[in-house]
Amino acid sequence: MLKHKELLDTVITLTQVNSYFTKVLNENISEFGLNLTDFSVLDLLFQKGEQTTQKIGEKILITSGSITYIINKLEKMELICRNKSETDKRITNIRLTEKGKKTIFKILPLQIEKINEIFSDFTKEDLVNLNCLLKKFNFSF
């Protein structure tokens, strides 16, 4: 069993890394009037296509109240739109608008450049190992 100090050191390091990534990745996004959570919604819709509000909340780990606020904000910015399901009118699907797609295409290169800078000292093996460890952690709860 790991010692308490090792566990605490690990948690502190993970918290610091999370704060650093949040700060650095928010820098590019904030220029577009967005934050990292807003961008996560747009990126999810870009990667996976149309989603229900509930699915979006589940996939980016935010509450239904928070997702409603974010969806309203992004809709007001004309980055997404809501569509009633053809098969079940109780279900509302969310999709990117053309403006949303254009915004993603502007932000992604900036994010990729920043991520490349962050990981520039890592070898391919380092990244594979880090990814394996993080996936192991992510699936443990």
- Classified in CATH, the superfamily is Winged helix-like DNA-binding domain superfamily/Winged helix DNA-binding domain
Helix content: 55-70%
Which CATH-level-2 architecture?
Answer: Orthogonal Bundle
Number of strands: 3
* Fold-level CATH name: Arc Repressor Mutant, subunit A
Radius of gyration from CA coordinates: 18 Å
Indicate the low-confidence ranges by residue numbers.
none
Instruction: Report the portion of residues in β strands.
Output: 5-15%
Tally of structural domains = 1
How does the overall form come out from the CA principal axes? Answer: globular
Strand arrangement in the largest pleated sheet: 1-3-2
Query: Which secondary-structure class do the elements indicate?
Result: mainly alpha
Distance between the termini: 18 Å
- Biggest sheet details: 3 strands, antiparallel
CATH class: Mainly Alpha
Q: What do the pLDDT scores average to?
A: 92
Describe this structure in words.
This protein has 141 residues and is mainly alpha-helical. It has one domain (25-138): Arc Repressor Mutant, subunit A. Helices cover 69% and strands 9% of the residues. The chain contains six helices and three strands; from the N terminus they run ααβααββαα. It has a three-stranded antiparallel β-sheet. Helix 1 (4-30) packs across helix 5 and helix 3 (53-60) packs across helix 4 (64-76). The longest helix has 27 residues, at 4-30. The model has no long low-confidence stretch (mean pLDDT 92).
